[in-house]
Design brief:
By secondary structure, this protein is mainly α. The protein is built from four helices and two strands, in the order H-H-H-E-E-H.
């Protein structure tokens, strides 16, 4: 039976490495010090990095991606509604 050749890291460990990276440690330093792969660390940084908004709210990259997706859906719905209004609104001949 084949076994996986990777170690499963808990979420707290991943977040702590991302925090260290945000506070100035390089990816190379972190990989050497903690024995994780570059690709895993890069994925964690992308997943757990945070952005502080003007109002003090902190969002993760994942939350920002979800908001961007929702925004695109709403823009599409808005465009469809505008087209529907144009179709169903009677136009006067005095324009």
């Amino acid at each position: 039976m084949a076994t996986n050749n990777y170690t499963k890291y808990d979420e707290e460990f991943k977040k702590s490495l991302v925090s260290l990276h945000q506070n100035g440690k390089t990816q190379t330093q972190l990989c050497k010090e903690y024995g994780v792969s570059q690709s895993a660390l890069a994925k964690w940084i992308k997943q757990y990095s945070t952005v502080e908004m003007d109002n003090g709210e902190v969002l993760t990259a994942k939350q920002i991606k979800e908001l961007q997706k929702r925004n695109a859906q709403l823009e599409e719905e808005n465009l469809i509604l505008k087209k529907a209004i144009a179709i169903f609104t009677p136009h006067s001949n005095n324009d």
